[in-house]
Specification:
The chain is an alpha+beta fold and 530 residues long. The chain contains 13 helices and twelve strands. 26% of the residues lie in helices and 15% in strands. The N terminus is likely disordered.
C-alpha cells in the first residue's frame, strides 16, 4: 500500500506518516469536521470526502467469469529443448531458446461461475492464467485446470455462461438450467464427464494441472508453423481432487481454503512448481484422426502426440496487495509474442476478441499501464487519452502518429519470416465435420478408477433428479451413447432416486439442496426479538 512513500517535509515523521492523496498529512483520522462534537457535519470535509468517495469506488466491476481468484509471482525457466530437439526447430519465441533462461511470471488461479467471495470448494472448472513478462513483451497463456471445454464455437459462449449462472429471477444456480443447455449441446459430454467426477473439485490451486485448452501455433525462423497444445503438470506437489462429501465438509470449515493454501505454502518456502509440456502436431487437417484437432472439446491422444517438456514454472512470491495485483490482473488469449501464433480454433478466435475487450471495460482503457499488467520491456505507442491515463508511451510528445518525416515512432525491424497460412473457401455458418461427441467421454469413463466412476454417477444422479423428465431422457441418451454402462447406471440412479427426492433444484454438485432449505427452517433455534 502506497502510504506517503518518500519523506514528508510537512511534519518530519517520514514515510510512515498518513496523508491523503494530495500529500497532505492527516492529523485526525477518527473524526469528521462538525459543528460541535455532535454535529451536524460541514461540507468542507476534504479529508473525509476524499476517503469516502474513493471507498465508494474501490471495487472494479466484478469479472463476469473467473471472479473468485488467487495469484502469485514467480518465474518460468526454459529447458532450451522440446523433448530431445532444440526448441528452435519449432518456434523462435525467445523465452524458450536458452537452457536456464528465466522469465518473470504472474499467475492467477480462479473458479469460474460464482462471485468474488464464493466458496472455493464448488464444482466448477478452475482458471489457470499465466502472464509471462518476456523480453519481447507480454505473453498471456489463459487456460483452465481441465484440458477440454464445453463448446467449440465462441457464438455459444454467452449462452453457456448464462445457463451455469444463477437464474435471473431467483438468483440461485439451478442444475436444471445447466442440463437443459447440456442436453441440447452434445459436444459438452466430455467436459461434463470430467466436471462431475472428482476432477471437478481440485483439492486446491497448487495440486492441479493446467492447460491452454485451445490449439495454438508455434512459428520458427523460416515462418513454418506447427499446431501446439500447452499443459502444466505439477512437479513437486502432485495432483489431488476431492469428492463431493469432502468438499462439503471443507466448505463448512473454510470457504477460502484454496487461497489460504497457496499463500501459506509460498510463505513457508514450499514453492509450487509445474512443468510446461507441449503436444505438437503438423499444421494440416489430419484426416486420419476421427476428430478435428482444432476442436477444444477433444484431447489429443498422448500415444500419438506425446507430452514434450519445454520448461518449468516456480511460484515464489505472494502479492503485496490483492486488489492491485490479483483483482486488477488482466489476461487475454490474443496476447502472443513473436514465434507464437493463432490457430483457426473457432473458440480461440472468439475469446481473443472477448478477453481483452472485457478488460478495457472492467479495468479501463489504460489497464496495460498498471504495474501487474505492464510489460517489463520497452513500450512506445501512439495511443492517447482514456480514463486513468498514467503516462504517455513515447519520447516525442508532439508526434502521436506514424509515419512521420519530422520525428516520432517508427516500425520495428522484422527478425523472422512471417507465417503466412493459406486460406480459401466460402464464408459459411456451419459446424465442423468431425464432431464425434461421444467417443472420448466414453473412453474417459472407462479409464476412471472404480471410486471415480462411483462418484461421477452419484454426482450426476443427484443433479439429474431435479430436472424435467424430458431433460433426463435426453441426458441418459447422451450418456448411453458415450458408454452403455455409463447410461444404464445414470438411468437406474434417476429411477431409484425419484422416490427419495423432492425434485427441488439447486447449485451444481450440491447433495439434496432442497433438504438444506427445510433443515435450516426446522432446526433453527427460536429467539425472542430485542
Amino acid at each position: 500500500m502506497d502510504i506517503n512513500k518518500g519523506s514528508n517535509t510537512n511534519d518530519g515523521d517520514g514515510e510512515q506518516t498518513l496523508t491523503n492523496r494530495q500529500g497532505h498529512p492527516i492529523t485526525d483520522n477518527q473524526s469528521m469536521r462538525t459543528v460541535g462534537n455532535r454535529g451536524p457535519t460541514v461540507l468542507e470535509n476534504y479529508d473525509f470526502l476524499e476517503k469516502i468517495t474513493h471507498f465508494d469506488r474501490e471495487k472494479t466491476p466484478e469479472r463476469v467469469v473467473h471472479a473468485r481468484g488467487a495469484g502469485a509471482h514467480g518465474y518460468f525457466e526454459a529447458y532450451g529443448t522440446v523433448g530431445n530437439e532444440p526448441v528452435s526447430t519449432y518456434t523462435r519465441a525467445k523465452l524458450f531458446q536458452e537452457k536456464g533462461k528465466k522469465t518473470p511470471v504472474f499467475v492467477r488461479f480462479s473458479t469460474v461461475i460464482h462471485g468474488i467471495h464464493s466458496p472455493e470448494t464448488l464444482r466448477d472448472p478452475r482458471g489457470f492464467a499465466v502472464k509471462f513478462y518476456t523480453e519481447d513483451g507480454n505473453w498471456d497463456l489463459v487456460g483452465n485446470n481441465l484440458k477440454v471445454f464445453f463448446i467449440r464455437d465462441a457464438m455459444k459462449f454467452p449462452d453457456l455462461v448464462h445457463a451455469f449462472k444463477p437464474d435471473p429471477v431467483t438468483n440461485i444456480q439451478d442444475v436444471e438450467r445447466i442440463f437443459d443447455f447440456i442436453s441440447n449441446t452434445p459436444e459438452a459430454m466430455h467436459m461434463i464427464t470430467f466436471l462431475f467426477s472428482p476432477w471437478g473439485i481440485p483439492a486446491n490451486y497448487r495440486q492441479m494441472q493446467g492447460s491452454g485448452v485451445n490449439t495454438y501455433k508455434w512459428v520458427n525462423q523460416e515462418g513454418k508453423a506447427v499446431f501446439v497444445k500447452y499443459h502444466w503438470e505439477p512437479l513437486t506437489q502432485g495432483i489431488k481432487n476431492l469428492t463431493q462429501k469432502q468438499a462439503e465438509e471443507i466448505q463448512g470449515k473454510n470457504f477460502n481454503h484454496a487461497t489460504q493454501d497457496l499463500y501459506e505454502a509460498i510463505e513457508r518456502g514450499e514453492y509450487p512448481e509445474w512443468e510446461m509440456c507441449v503436444q505438437i502436431m503438423s499444421d494440416d487437417d489430419h484426416p486420419e484422426l476421427d476428430f478435428d484437432p482444432l476442436d477444444p472439446t477433444k484431447l489429443w491422444p498422448e500415444d500419438q502426440f506425446p507430452f514434450l517438456p519445454v520448461g518449468k514454472m516456480v511460484l515464489n512470491k505472494n502479492p503485496e496487495n490483492y486488489f492491485a495485483e490479483v483483482e486488477q490482473a488482466a489476461f487475454g488469449t490474443g496476447v502472443l509474442v513473436d514465434g507464437l501464433d493463432f490457430s483457426d480454433d473457432k473458440l480461440l478466435q472468439g475469446r481473443t476478441f472477448s478477453y481483452s475487450d472485457t478488460q478495457r471495460y472492467r479495468v479501463g482503457a489504460n489497464y496495460l499501464q498498471l504495474p501487474v499488467n505492464a510489460p517489463k520491456t520497452h513500450v512506445a505507442t501512439n495511443q492517447e487519452g482514456g480514463q486513468m491515463l498514467y503516462k504517455v508511451d513515447r519520447t516525442e510528445p508532439h508526434i502521436n502518429y506514424e509515419p512521420s518525416t519530422i520525428g516520432g515512432l517508427h516500425e520495428a525491424k522484422q527478425h523472422g519470416k512471417d507465417h503466412e497460412p493459406y486460406v480459401a473457401g466460402n464464408i459459411v455458418r456451419q459446424k465442423i465435420d468431425r464432431t464425434n461427441d461421444f467417443k472420448q467421454p466414453g473412453e474417459r469413463y472407462r479409464m476412471m478408477e472404480d471410486w471415480e466412476r462411483d462418484e461421477l454417477i452419484a454426482n450426476l444422479t443427484n443433479a439429474m433428479l431435479s430436472c424435467d423428465p424430458r431433460i433426463q431422457e435426453k441426458m441418459i441418451h447422451f450418456f448411453t451413447q458415450c458408454d452403455m454402462d455409463y447410461g444404464n447406471r445414470i438411468k437406474k440412479g434417476v429411477e431409484e432416486g425419484k422416490s427419495k427426492s423432492d425434485g427441488i433444484g439447486g447449485p451444481m454438485g450440491a447433495t439434496n439442496p432442497g433438504q438444506a432449505v427445510r433443515q435450516a427452517e426446522n432446526e433453527g433455534h427460536p429467539a425472542d426479538p430485542y
